[in-house]
Amino acid sequence: MKKRLSNIELLRILSMIFVMLIHVTYALSGKYYSQSDSLMSVIVQWITMICVDLFVLISGWFGIHFTIKGIVKLLYQTIFLALFAFVVCILSGYAHFTIGGLWHCTFGIFSIYWFVWAYILLVILSPVLNSYVEIATRSQFKFLLLSFYVFALYAYFTLKVDPIFSKGFHTMSFIGIYLLGRYMKLYNPKWTQFSKKIDFVIYICSVIVSVVSVLFLQKYHQETLIVEKFGNYIAPTTMIGAVFFFLIFTKFSFHNKFINWCAISCFAAFIIHMQFDMHKLYNEVFQRIHSEYPLPLFWLVSITLVFGMFILCVLIDKIRLYTWNKLFEKM
Questions:
Q1: Neighbours of 324 (CB within 10 A)
Q2: Within 10 A of 180 (CB to CB), how many other CB atoms are there?
Q3: Residue 63 and residue 57: Cα distance in Å, rounded?
Q4: Which backbone phi and psi does 199 adopt, to 5 degrees?
Q5: Over the stretch 10-36, which tens digit does the pLDDT of each residue have?
């Protein structure tokens, strides 16, 4: 069993915290971009927009090893925790039992968890991708990536060409990010060899460009352009920010048992807070906090609450891990 690298596990945890925080910004506006009265909300959203890309880059950096057990384990985790969140909402009186609700937590989980189905398909395709990486020369691999992202940029800059691909909510965009992660790991090109400070500056510049552009578009009521051009995971600013933020964590190393222990279960935070009924409650909680606290205090309280919820989800997932281990031993 490979030793977990706490620097990358810390990045995995931060990625999930970013997911939860970006959903706070969605809760304030009710849309997939920040339309609130706060510059801070816009900044937080585009600081955290890199969240999904980071997860896939981590997979690409280490490489995915396809196993049926791995897919079953991910499905078990998703269904177990979705059902857990559903039951908690029912027992607390926030939701009522319905066949539809049960369906969304079991056979219909992909209707809620788009990331899960997109990632599972990436896992299924990983043997083909890995085989190409093994046999291709560096120049062939580089040409493939350039071709992929030329096409992706075309889809990005052309409205209504391919809204699924251009927004990055699809396995197709994951393939490009995964291969980019493999390329960086295997060949360590010159642009990955900057210092951590330069990597961070590039990341901050990507955030600044996004925020300024979004504020400009908001001024002229171009909400569609915000959603289609900036509020997605394959936008150039998002990709650049994700890559260089990721590279920071590859340039130092340490070992911490607690971070590794939390990182094993960090995906639980996504599953639990995105369960259909729980997510409505999640939005209502932060909307209420927003209405009761001044803005600076709101973000202090919200960030603290997100961290607390993250730790709680990790603890809940340990129950899931226990049941999985017992079941797998019998299997």
A1: 16
A2: 22
A3: 9
A4: -55, -45
A5: 999 999 999 999 999 988 875 555 555
